[in-house]
Amino acid sequence: MIDTLAASPVRVAVAAVLWSALVLYGLSALWWILETTVLAQGGRVVPEDVRWGYDDVQIRILTVDAAAVVQGTVDAVPDGIDDIVVVAETSMSIDDASVHVVPESFECAATHKGRALEWARRRVPCDREYVVYLDEDTIMTDFVGLPDADVVQFTELPLYTGSWVTYVCEVFRIGYQYEQFAFHRLRYPLYAWGGCLAVRASVEDAVTWDAATVTEDTNFLWRAAARGRLDFAVLDVRFRNQAPPSIRAMMNQRRRWISGTRADGGLLPRSYRPLYYTRIVAWAFSPLVPVFVVVSAATPGAIPASGAYQAASLALFGLLFVYTGVGTARYRKSVGRALAYVVATPVAFLAHSAGALWGVMRPVESFAVTQKVAPETVESVNARLEAGDIEAHDGSERLVEERPVE
Q1: Which of 76, 238, 274, 369 supports an S-S bond with 139, CB 3.0-4.6 Å?
Q2: H helix count then E strand count, the chain
Q3: Is the CA virtual torsion 254, 160, 393, 325 positive or negative?
Q4: Neighbouring C-beta atoms of residue 401, cutoff 10 Å
Q5: Which H or E element spans position 175?
Q6: In what order do the strands lie in the sheet with 232-239?
Q7: What b-and-e string marks burial along 16-29, b requiring 16 or more CB atoms within 10 Å of the CB?
Q8: Distance between CA atoms of 114 and 116, rounded to whole angstroms?
């Protein structure tokens, strides 16, 4: 330690930065471990635990103009659900659903998708207990009803759409997202994914979607929690949606996610902000973890307590592979395929973090909808799907065995 203090100011400054970065990332990693091993206990709701049935839900599917994609989503809604609404930006004809077009003249504080959600809340009649929101590409699976909660997050398993890199990134993300099972223990769940989200209609009317944000799902969740006790549940039914079809599309998506949640951080109480902003920085700068390993190995003795630094950096690097491993378990992949994806972890976390880093450096206040592909394309690139499988699928059942073939 004396040698270190006697070292040049540059070396001391570099060591301080490296230790600070490692500690910051380490705190985020330790929180994830606490969530998934302790707080997640009892947070997994399965179909057998539901209380509200098909007659208690209205399905609302949000789109701009992707009629072919929406039709596949509507076809997959369970046969017992008869209240299906499509909220679109352009006129279209969809079988077995009523289509409502958001007029250009409609004005509110919300923008983009939030604007469409708010218009539908005000203008589309709903006499059901819950509104179930789906993205245009979300295929329902194993859905038999809802648990009794104010907000219900459905789990997801993105389908391969032609880009191996983005699919690996989604497996990695699903592994990390296992932490959502711990959110029922938190007053403020840390995020929501609006692509498959159920909201009690009375709560929706009380909170509204009328807020300027590019991440309307998480923004809604935080404003709902600010009103008082919020019952949040995660229903483990593993709806199937589409992995982004290209790396650029995925980067833009991640950029929007981190831009929105960073901008909305003021909605959180002060006690939550250090945790949340630490997680944002850790996500965006996770590619630094292997740098920690290289630096600690290449410059022994240059960092105070270099042995501890090297051990900690190796442990954090190993945790990245754990995220992918958890993701492969969620997909129920075979041992061989699971090992292949775990080996590909460096590709996953680099690509997954690139968009987040972009969002930290250059946040956005608007966004383009992530491109989706038609059901025929999804079926053609997945060997366990045949032509017409999505159209014939009933959302009360599983679409395919969770082992997509690339």
Answers
A1: 76
A2: 15, 8
A3: negative
A4: 9
A5: helix 164-176
A6: 44-45, 232-239, 151-156, 196-200, 130-135, 57-62, 84-88, 98-101
A7: eebbebbebbbebb
A8: 5
Q: What's the pTM value of the predicted model, to 2 decimals?
A: 0.91
Type of residue found at 65: D
* DSSP string over 220-257: HHHHHHHTS---EEEEEEEEB-BPPSSHHHHHHHHHHH
H or E stretch covering 98: strand 98-101
Instruction: Give residue-wise pLDDT tens across range 220-278.
Output: 999 999 999 999 999 999 999 999 999 999 999 999 888 888 889 999 999 998 888 88
Q: Which amino acid is at 292?
A: F
Q: Is 48 exposed, middle or buried (0-12, 13-18, 19+ CB in 10 A)?
A: exposed
Single out the residue of 274, 255, 210, 283 nearest to residue 363, CA to CA.
255
CB–CB of 119/87 below 8 Å?
A: yes
**What DSSP string describes 335-377?**
HHHHHHHHHTHHHHHHHHHHHHHHHHHS--S--PPPP---HHH
What is the spatial distance between Cα 183 and Cα 170, in angstroms, rounded to a whole number?
20
* Six token digits for residue 87: 């909220």
